């Protein structure tokens, strides 16, 4: 009897879980850019929109680029930031910078 009740309650729980997932629709996953610190593209884009307009500001805002690998994801962060600063939007696909060159220095803004 107890075993039967346990099986029934498990089935009800599973049914409820499936109904909930169906009602919520498929989850949209954001691409993980920084694997060391598990930082998604969505998080980085939000930081950039909120004013992180240099790599250091992105590092501070998200912890992306400062993981134990030494910053492998920076080759994606740079092009993502450059694209945003140039176009005001984010690219669907990030073209990684594989040149190894540091980004050019920022031009001083007149104040
Ligand atoms: S992947 Fe971003 S710091 Fe390692």
What keyword list fits this structure?
mainly alpha, binds FE2/S2 (inorganic) cluster, 111 residues, 2 strands, Arc Repressor Mutant, subunit A, 49% helix
Explain what this protein looks like in three dimensions.
It is elongated, with a radius of gyration of 21 Å. Strand 1 (32-34) and strand 2 form a beta hairpin. A two-stranded antiparallel sheet has the order 1-2. The chain is 49% helix and 5% strand. The termini are far apart. It is mostly helical and 111 residues long. The protein has 4 helices and 2 strands. It has a domain at 32-87: BFD-like [2Fe-2S]-binding domain (Arc Repressor Mutant, subunit A). The chain has helices spanning 2-24, 41-49, 55-62, 74-87; strands at residues 32-34, 39-40. The mean pLDDT is 83. It binds FE2/S2 (inorganic) cluster. FE2/S2 (inorganic) cluster (FES) binds next to loops.
Unique bound compounds: FE2/S2 (inorganic) cluster
Main β-sheet, spatial strand arrangement: 1-2
Report the CATH architecture of the domain at 32-87. Answer: Orthogonal Bundle
Give the oligomer, counting copies of the same chain as homo and different chains as hetero: single chain
Low-confidence stretches: none
Strand and helix order: HEEHHH
The CATH homologous superfamily name of the domain at 32-87 equals BFD-like [2Fe-2S]-binding domain
Radius of gyration from the CA trace?
21 Å
Strands, helices and their partners?
Layout: H1 2-24, E1 32-34, E2 39-40, H2 41-49, H3 55-62, H4 74-87
Antiparallel strand pairs: 1-2
FE2/S2 (inorganic) cluster binds next to loops.
């Amino acid at each position: 009897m107890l075993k039967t009740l346990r099986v029934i309650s498990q089935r009800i729980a599973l049914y409820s879980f499936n109904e909930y997932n169906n009602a919520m629709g498929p989850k949209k996953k954001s691409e993980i850019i920084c694997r060391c610190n598990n930082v998604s593209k969505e998080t980085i884009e939000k930081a950039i929109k909120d004013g992180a307009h240099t790599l250091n500001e992105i590092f501070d805002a998200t912890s992306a680029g400062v993981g134990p690998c030494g910053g492998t994801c920076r080759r994606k962060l740079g092009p993502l930031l450059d694209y945003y600063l140039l176009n005001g939007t984010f690219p669907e696909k990030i073209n990684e910078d594989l040149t190894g060159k540091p980004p050019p220095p920022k031009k001083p803004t007149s104040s």
